[in-house]
């Protein structure tokens, strides 16, 4: 079907990423201080308006694609000689559902930010960054080109750096933003290497063209095993960084230093976009069985280690950021085992539930000005909306009937139980550990006696409560939404023993979190073995120390060696030649007599020596 025969909303799909970028541009006058007679709120309202337009535009396209089927559109971008660059969009139900997730959560997050950052003097700058963030995300999920996906991922990395460093006057925030940027750059550089190699081999950056080339190259053996392995590892490196997977997972924990409204989007839609890019490049991994094995190993380590580290955190935001790494590890396992449909359902269920959890966490922080679990308690009766949001978000995140992740875990376990029982056990154990962590945090925050910082804690304002309640309803309706995407919910989707195993693992986690001893004033156990284990988990298995002792130390050593070579060898040689020239000039200056006959004698001697050397060379060749 030609583009001219399609409806106007589909023909104008290229505008959807521009909604976010236009919100950034509209916010600049207030962010730059050009309008000084009013506050920064007009910038927020303009961003809300363009994001609402993006949601409406995306929903119209989704309805039409539902009726017409998937569409592919291309628009000319740059033409010169034989170079023809085009911007392509894949309009499938999967991409459009991801687009609605991105724009919808961005809209709710922006309304939430109006209440959370109510007294923030740089509110306009925040909304400008969120608009930039949203535009890059929308472009990533719709792009049909590896080049455009990479370009937009780079923009996403930059916007993450700016949002994490929003409160740049705090040294810890600056360090967190720098580490987040550099960590993601590692994966981006490796992805760039793979993309450059593909452009030379395949001659096209469109995903459909790359799939055709990959099938032909695989059949003909055009690539050597080494080239295929390096290509596969490069393709998965970028998504690993974006999804905060081991060993590039520390940035997501440090990114919690940024404003909580940005954390809502970062833990829900950013990781979703990274996983979608991984799904798009999966057909290119047929050359590299090693890359698939790496995905399975990385996903398993991230799922289990992330869930274990989360249960030892006393910072409420970090307790849930590590669970994001854990759940994306399960997504990586599902993608590596060729189960993209289940991975998509898990991404959507996790994204909505995790966004709701971070909204409830932000409400707690905004009310108490505290995010230390040992200083919180008794908020259940004082903050009913926040408590309800936390409970629904938690139920939607673990394998407890009847919310979204129950069906996802059931499908994963049913699929893996016969062929890959180890990964089925990983799913059940991750579910149990997550339920344990959520119950532990709930007891710390909402139950027990009130603490000094929670005695006068009121419920949040309506600007924060409205999106939180709206998202609570969406999470509760997630099984119905999943049924529209794919008729999954229903006990017929997997066997009764699998359903019992999933529910039992969740109940074991809840029971463990309910009976685990909580020490409000002793965050570390008095028992030496337990304290060692707790310190190991709380410090993320000392990963940062290992990095400092190995990678950072090696880079620092190379930097010192380079500095020594530059200052002593290179500069020393240049400075030595300069000093020799100056000394020679001083010596010659003193030997000048000023007599003409001396100059003539010197010229004659030089001519004689030149003629003699030429005659000698002629004699040698003769």
Provide the fold topology.
Elements: H1 8-11, H2 16-31, H3 41-68, E1 71-80, E2 83-91, H4 93-116, H5 123-142, H6 146-164, H7 171-202, H8 207-220, H9 225-242, H10 250-254, H11 260-281, H12 289-310, H13 316-336, H14 340-368, H15 384-397, H16 404-419, H17 421-446, H18 462-476, H19 478-485, H20 496-515, H21 528-538, H22 543-590, H23 596-621
Antiparallel strand pairs: 1-2
Helix pairs in contact: 2-3, 2-5, 3-4, 3-5, 4-5, 4-11, 4-14, 4-18, 5-6, 5-11, 6-7, 6-11, 7-9, 9-11, 9-12, 11-13, 11-14, 12-13, 12-17, 13-14, 13-17, 14-15, 14-16, 14-18, 15-17, 15-18, 16-17, 16-20, 17-20
Overview of the structural elements:
With 622 residues, the chain is mostly helical. The chain has a domain at 527-561. The protein has helices spanning 8-11, 16-31, 41-68, 93-116, 123-142, 146-164, 171-202, 207-220, 225-242, 250-254, 260-281, 289-310, 316-336, 340-368, 384-397, 404-419, 421-446, 462-476, 478-485, 496-515, 528-538, 543-590, 596-621, and strands at residues 71-80, 83-91. A two-stranded antiparallel ribbon has the order 1-2. α3 runs antiparallel to α4 (93-116), α4 runs parallel beside α14 (340-368) and α11 runs antiparallel to α14 (340-368). It is globular and about 110 Å long. Mean pLDDT is 85; it is low at 487-492.
Tell me briefly what this model is.
This protein has helices at residues 8-11, 16-31, 41-68, 93-116, 123-142, 146-164, 171-202, 207-220, 225-242, 250-254, 260-281, 289-310, 316-336, 340-368, 384-397, 404-419, 421-446, 462-476, 478-485, 496-515, 528-538, 543-590, 596-621; strands spanning 71-80, 83-91. It is mainly α and 622 residues long.
